[in-house]
Design a protein that fits this description.
The chain is built from seven helices and eight strands; from the N terminus they run ααααββββββαββαα. Strands 1-6 form a two-stranded antiparallel sheet. The chain has a two-stranded antiparallel sheet with strand order 2-3. Strands 4-5 form a two-stranded antiparallel ribbon.
Length: 183
């Protein structure tokens, strides 16, 4: 293998695609490989696992940068009037150009703030068996999970985690790990 491409040209192309679009399916399609090649390489090569994680982090950082830019700087959107794009004469050339307005995404801005600034994270309160009120800070992942899953799916996940924690705690000689789900 060449020094610049330690994993071969197709896997290197896949890693390059992950840096741009951190999505395995889309990156595999762009690199013209089957996703199973990527997963097999992850299992067989610790070096590839590290390279993949670094590429994925770079891709996620790039997406984060785009989100911040869209949330703060916005984008130009053409004005549509009576089903047609509104046009105006360009001040310098006189050429007809679309009329645009600058849009920003306040919801995306709030998401960025929640993920990066603790003061904007959602707080959960629950009173129950414990004496008093328990306050917990929801991570962006937990908030996203509740947005993506139905209540039934969340309950199924909770039940699986509780059952797994119970089995782990009952194993003789097994040091009890910190439970994932706390009732």
């Amino acid at each position: 293998m060449k020094q610049g491409r330690p994993f071969g040209p197709k896997i290197s192309a896949f890693l390059a695609a992950i840096r741009v679009m951190p999505n395995v399916t889309r990156a595999a399609k762009a690199a013209k490989i089957n996703k199973s090649q990527h997963y097999a390489k992850r299992k067989s090569s610790p070096e590839y696992e590290i390279a993949f994680e670094q590429a994925m982090q770079m891709g996620c950082d790039a997406l984060s940068d785009v989100a911040v830019t869209r949330a703060t700087d916005g984008w130009e959107e053409p004005v549509v009037y009576q089903g047609r794009v509104a046009l105006q004469a360009h001040s310098d050339t006189g050429e007809l150009v679309p009329v645009t307005v600058r849009k920003i995404d306040n919801q995306l801005l709030m998401f960025v703030l929640k993920s990066r600034h603790p003061d904007y994270r959602e707080r959960l309160e629950h009173s129950g068996k414990l004496s008093g009120t328990v306050k917990a800070e929801a991570t962006p992942e937990a908030v996203l999970l509740t947005d993506l899953c139905s209540p039934q799916q969340l309950e199924e996940m909770r039940a699986k985690l509780v059952a797994r924690d119970k089995v782990r705690s009952e194993c003789p000689g097994n040091p009890s790990p910190e439970p994932i789900w706390r009732e």
